[in-house]
């Protein structure tokens, strides 16, 4: 069973959309996600995609259009200011129109005059529907978790095989020492030489060296790669405004002169 409650994925906008979210939830709308930057991953339960044009890059907006078209979701682009966004949200069915609001008020008044026992039964039935909906979502999340664990296990196996292969190929010293080269330095160095000193994010580095998508990368990969990069003469800085195509400002690694 599915619920008639709109489920909205917010795309773009400023990092803090709490006020906009509170307005939507005040109308009984569920906000399942806020995606301010690429990559765009709209949850399966979303029924509407609302693009907040404030600070939304063209690439992110086009990605939202493609996802909405492919999954037949309602899409509307609005300003983050609620007074400007509200009329368009009503027009696209995200929040009820004034006529629907009046009908809902009439039904609420009618229900208030009904037999209390009938009203309680109606409320219980609605809660059962909602519970079944939540159970269905929980089953989907469990399946996604199991799939992710399998993917991570396979990726870890590939990473370990690369590291072990490098360790076997690298000449060994007579005695272990703290200054020995980390095998990951040898894996990273060829990719760095191809970039000719151009800045990059640590997620790009992990993806290029190990083939792990950015969303599947753990902090352990980033920490060890960071140690290797610093030993190879690299340091990090915040991206300048306008430096990234999508307008974001991640940490960029660069070769220290």
Describe the structure.
This protein has 257 residues and is of the alpha/beta class. The chain has 3 domains: 7-96, Rossmann fold (3-Layer(aba) Sandwich); 114-172; 179-255. It contains 8 helices and 6 strands. It has helices at 18-26, 58-71, 82-91, 98-112, 116-169, 183-195, 202-210, 219-231; strands at residues 7-12, 30-35, 48-52, 74-78, 234-238, 251-255. The strands form 2 sheets. The chain has a 4-stranded parallel beta sheet with strand order 2-1-3-4, sandwiched between helices. Strands 5-6 form a two-stranded antiparallel ribbon. α2 (58-71) links the parallel β3 and β4. The radius of gyration is 25 Å and the shape is globular. The N and C termini lie far apart (61 Å). Residues 174-178 have low confidence and may be disordered.
**Major beta sheet summary:** 4 strands, parallel
The portion of residues forming beta strands comes to: 5-15%
Q: What name is given to the CATH topology of the largest domain?
A: Rossmann fold
CATH class type of the largest domain: Alpha Beta
**Strand order in the largest sheet:** 2-1-3-4
